[in-house]
Design a protein that fits this description.
There is one protein chain. Helices cover 50% and strands 16% of the residues. The longest helix is centred in the middle third of the chain and has 24 residues. The chain has 19 helices and 12 strands. The chain binds zinc ion (ZN).
Length: 458
């Protein structure tokens, strides 16, 4: 209920601006009085009072105007409650933006909360920028974030499960043996929406099968039935949790980790062979050392010159041939993964995938004198069905790895978290920001078209 331009510009419901002037240091001083119908009603009995007890001057903190701070001087009345049986003798006026006992306007709190939730700054920074204390800024953020995070997630067709280290592991020196003993190694198990845009669906403390199963058990049976594919790293713990809680879902192994294992195997063979050949670790000048960067690259990304360099370095002696065998093994495994639709443009058939896997196993069997290659083949055969399913469905855990990066960024900006609940809230807010932004965009579009129709004179 605004009466004048100044009050409309000031924009606090129930406050009428009586004066405004520029103060020291560019501060805008705003003087206001109450103009709110309910302000003279007793908060206890609801009787509208007609007797002013005294006038008080308060200075609620408010949002800045551009770069200038705003200082509000609010002349409040203290009323006397006129109902005879009421316990309360007097009460002061209040407006929705500044409830009783509040010294900040609601919009200042909302601004701080939005900065933390949507711009990703820390509560400490938001508190500094808005002239409030850390607990107030954090409380405002929690009040904004919690209702959103507590909503149960929409059904998910492709679910990703990944672990995320929560802070550094803590060690202690054992006084008797003098050895380091692990005190705490803190982890979160995280659940991701790989097919939709919901980002991080939830986290639980710990990384055992029971921890993962606990989160899945909290979901409704209908939600669990909707999950068709679950992507995990090659980790038996999560596999057992998924088999227990989501028996109908197809498990797939994340292909990035499969390639990672193969690349690591190539490096292990190269380091072992070089040590055997020279009796020391590799160094600049060794032909094997010069191509170590090329060996980890994808074969199809090598230029003809680089390929010739690898062949020249490895073709000369038996040690080089052993490295070459490991390298070819890696590429044979990648041949299997390259059948996925994202690379070829067409959905592969299972027989082709298993055929190429057989070629990989065959190569490993021919080179059974390389222990690293055999151990890779054993791991792959243990996860064979999950790897084949990953190639056929094309589902990867890439989304969860990218959101893990966001989670780490949050932890760094906060200089570590002491409180796991607060870490979960901040990380989940960061990892669902994109989906919130998208959904807001959709609703905004809809309201705009409705408004236009209303204003159309024809
Ligand atoms: Zn009263």
């Amino acid at each position: 209920m605004f009466h004048d331009t100044a009050s409309v510009l000031f924009g606090v419901e129930g406050l009428q601006v009586t004066d405004a002037e520029s103060g020291a240091g560019g501060t805008l001083e705003v003087w206001a009085v109450t103009d709110h119908a309910a302000a003279s009603a007793c908060p206890d009995c609801g009787t509208v009072s007609g007797r002013v007890h005294e006038q008080v001057l308060t200075r609620p903190r408010d949002v800045a105007r551009g770069l200038d701070a705003v200082q509000v001087w609010w002349v409040k009345r203290r009323w006397k409650c006129e109902a005879g049986e009421c316990e309360r003798k007097t009460f002061t006026e209040w407006v929705p933006q500044v409830p009783p006992r509040c010294r900040l306007t609601g919009r200042l709190r909302e601004q701080a909360a939005a900065e933390i939730a949507e711009r990703g700054i820390t509560p400490a920074e938001a508190a500094r920028g808005n002239g409030m204390s850390w607990p107030v800024a954090h409380g405002a953020f929690a009040a904004r974030a919690d209702p959103l995070l507590e909503q149960s997630p929409e059904p998910v067709a492709h679910l990703g499960i990944d672990e995320h280290r929560r802070g550094r592991p803590r060690w202690r020196i054992d006084e008797d043996t003098g050895e380091y003993v692990l005190l705490a190694d803190r982890w979160h198990t995280c659940f991701f929406d790989l097919s939709g845009g919901q980002g991080l669906l939830g986290q639980v403390e710990g990384r055992t099968a029971d921890d993962a199963a606990y989160w899945l058990a909290l979901a409704t049976p209908a939600w669990r039935d909707a999950v068709r594919v679950v992507a995990i790293d090659m980790c038996t713990i999560y596999a057992s949790a998924v088999r227990r809680m989501l028996p109908g879902a197809q498990l797939v192994a994340d292909l990035f980790h499969v390639v990672h294992l193969a690349v690591k195997m190539t490096g292990d063979v190269r380091r072992r062979v070089v040590r055997g050949k020279y009796g020391r670790r590799g160094r600049t000048g060794d032909p094997e050392y010069g191509i170590k960067g090329l060996l980890v690259r994808n074969l199809e990304h090598l230029s003809p010159g680089q390929f010739a360099k690898v062949m020249a370095a490895l073709g000369s002696d038996p040690a080089g041939q052993e490295i070459a065998a490991a390298w070819i093994g890696k590429e044979k495994l990648r041949d299997v993964l390259n059948l996925r639709a994202r690379v070829t443009g067409s959905v592969p058939c299972e027989r082709d995938v298993r055929g190429r896997l057989f070629a990989f196993y065959d190569w490993c069997a021919q080179n059974d004198d390389i222990p690293e290659l055999l151990s890779l083949a054993r791991t792959v055969s243990r996860w064979e069905d999950e790897i084949v399913a990953a190639v056929l469905t094309g589902v990867t855990n890439a989304v969860s790895e990218s959101l893990n990066r966001l989670a780490k960024l949050e932890a760094r900006m906060a200089y570590g978290f002491r409180n796991p609940a607060s870490q979960r809230r901040r990380v989940r807010t960061a990892c669902t920001r994109g989906s919130r932004r998208r959904s807001r965009h959709v609703t905004k579009k809809r309201t705009r078209s409705v408004t236009r129709r209303q204003h159309d004179p024809g």
